[in-house]
Amino acid sequence: MDLTPPPLPRQVIVVLMTFSSSAEAGKVATALVEERLAACVNLVPGVRSLFVWDNALEDAQEVLAVAKTTLDRFDALVSRVKALHSYSVPEVIGLPVLVGSEDYFNWVRGCVSDT
């Protein structure tokens, strides 16, 4: 029996995304923050990604983006990333944050509030 409560709409989450260049990552990150879809996006250059695409092993240099937002903003964030991203299937993965500073959580919620 799972006793874990369901996630709350205003729950803070972390979203992982990858991009082919720093320029593209910066453009998308700026849009997400300016449009209040993410409170903050950290860009980590120099990530080596190994994956299969079109039945071929790819070995690519990418930029990892780590965004902080809330669960209720996730769908809008995904839509915006898809609209701006150069990949036909961009990586956009939302992960729950189990614990953290309540002051930080309140700041994230305030930044991405649509009210």
Provide a descriptive summary of the structure in words.
With 115 residues, the chain is an alpha+beta fold. The protein has a single domain (12-112), classed as 2-Layer Sandwich (Alpha-Beta Plaits). 30% of the residues lie in helices and 37% in strands. It is built from three helices and four strands, in the order βαββαβα. It has a four-stranded antiparallel beta sheet. α1 (22-34) runs antiparallel to α2. The protein starts with 11 loop residues before the first strand and ends with a helix. The relative contact order is 0.28. The model has no long low-confidence stretch (mean pLDDT 93).
Q: What is the name of the CATH class?
A: Alpha Beta
The radius of gyration is: 15 Å
Quantity of strands, as a count: 4
Strands ordered across the widest β-sheet: 2-3-1-4
Oligomer status? single chain
- Could you describe the largest sheet, including whether it forms a barrel? 4 strands, antiparallel
What structural class should be given to the helix and strand makeup? alpha+beta
| Percentage of residues in strands | 35-45%
User: Number of domains in the coordinates?
Assistant: 1
Give the averaged pLDDT, no decimals.
Answer: 93
What would the principal axes of the Cα set say about the shape?
Answer: globular
Poorly predicted regions: none
Number of distinct helices = 3
Short description:
It contains three helices and four strands; from the N terminus they run E-H-E-E-H-E-H. It is α+β, with helices and mostly antiparallel strands and about 120 residues long.
